[in-house]
Design brief:
Rossmann fold; 25% helix
C-alpha cells in the first residue's frame, strides 16, 4: 500500500515513523516544502504525475490548509482512504465527500483506557460528563518559540478550542452531540498570542447527558482528565497518569493503570483501524459535528 503524507511538521514526522513500521505500507512519499532525503518529496500536488498510484493519503498540514487539500483530493482521486488531522478546518466549511473515505485524526479514541471506559458504560445510563484539559502553551513545544507556532495565530487555525477539540470529539462519541450550548471563549492571559487561551462550555447532548468541558493554554500544572457519572458508578480517567478509576455506590473501587503507554501506540492503532475495520476512527461526518459545536461556541463569543 502506497502512502502520500501531506505535511512534515512534528505531527507529520510522527505519522511517518508509525506508518514506516506497518507491514501493510510499501512506500511513503511526502508533499512538503522540506527536503527529506529518505524518500520522494514533492512541493505541490501538480508535480505528481499520477495521484491514483497512492492508496492512502494522510493530511498532516496546518489546519488552515486542510480544506483546500481535501477539496483537491476529492476532485482528483476516487476510492481512496484519507486521514485528515484534527480539527477538520479552522472554521466550518461546506465540503461534500462522495468519491473517497475521509477520516479525522482524533487519536485519543485509541487510548486503551478511554476504550475501556466506553466498554464499561455501554449498558449504563450516563448522567453527566466533565472534561478538563490544560497546559501552559510555552511548554508545549520546548524547541519552538510559542509565539511562532500555529497555536498562537487565529488565522492559521490556532486557539485552544481548535487545538484541544479532542475533548469535544470524545465527549460527543460517548455522550451524543452537544446541544443547548452555553459557552465562554476568550484570551485572558498575558501570552503574546491573538487566539483564545481559555474556553469553557456546558451543554446537554442528544442523549440527554449534561456535559461540562474546560480547556486552556494557561495552566502551569498540565492536566487532562474526565469524570463521568452514571446511575451506578463514578469513573475518573486521568490521561496524564494513564489511570482509570471506577467507584460504585457501595464505595467499592477498581483502578486500571496503563503507565507504560507509548504515545505512538495510539497512532499505530488509529492507522491499523483505518486500514482494516474502521471501528473506532472518527468519520468525516463526526468531524463535521465537532466543527458545528466549535462554530456554535465561536458565534456565541464574537
Amino acid at each position: 500500500m502506497k502512502v502520500l503524507l501531506i505535511g512534515f511538521g512534528s505531527i507529520g514526522k510522527r505519522h511517518f515513523d508509525v506508518l514506516s513500521s506497518l507491514p501493510q505500507i510499501s512506500s511513503i512519499d511526502l508533499l512538503t516544502q522540506q527536503k527529506v532525503k529518505i524518500c520522494q518529496c514533492y512541493k505541490k500536488f501538480e508535480e505528481i504525475k499520477n495521484l491514483n498510484v497512492y492508496d492512502y493519503f494522510v493530511i498532516a498540514s496546518p489546519t488552515y490548509k486542510h480544506y483546500e487539500q481535501l477539496q483537491y483530493l476529492e476532485k482528483n482521486v476516487s476510492g481512496k482512504l484519507i486521514l485528515c488531522e484534527k480539527p477538520l478546518f479552522e472554521t466550518t466549511k461546506n465540503l461534500h465527500i462522495r468519491n473517497n473515505q475521509v477520516f479525522v485524526g482524533y487519536v485519543l479514541r485509541f487510548h486503551p483506557l478511554l476504550l475501556k471506559l466506553k466498554e464499561f458504560i455501554k449498558n449504563e445510563k450516563i448522567i453527566s460528563f466533565y472534561a478538563k484539559c490544560g497546559q501552559y502553551l510555552p511548554t508545549w513545544r520546548p524547541q519552538t518559540d510559542y509565539r511562532d507556532s500555529y497555536s498562537a495565530k487565529k488565522r492559521e487555525g490556532g486557539g485552544v478550542l481548535l487545538d484541544l477539540s479532542h475533548e469535544i470529539d470524545y465527549a460527543q462519541w460517548i455522550c451524543g452531540v452537544c446541544q443547548e450550548i452555553k459557552s465562554y471563549q476568550s484570551k485572558v492571559s498575558d501570552l503574546e498570542i491573538d487566539s483564545d487561551d481559555l474556553t469553557m462550555f456546558i451543554a446537554k447532548t442528544s442523549q440527554d447527558v449534561f456535559v461540562n468541558i474546560s480547556m486552556d493554554y494557561i495552566s502551569k500544572i498540565s492536566h487532562r482528565r474526565v469524570v463521568l457519572e452514571t446511575l451506578d458508578n463514578t469513573y475518573e480517567l486521568d490521561f496524564i497518569a494513564n489511570k482509570l478509576t471506577k467507584k460504585d455506590r457501595f464505595a467499592d473501587e477498581e483502578i486500571y493503570d496503563f503507565s507504560t503507554l507509548e504515545r505512538n501506540l495510539m497512532f499505530e492503532q488509529m492507522h491499523i483501524d483505518i486500514l482494516s475495520e474502521q471501528k473506532y476512527i472518527s468519520t468525516f461526518e463526526e468531524g463535521l459535528e465537532v466543527m458545528q459545536t466549535i462554530t456554535t461556541i465561536e458565534e456565541q463569543n464574537r
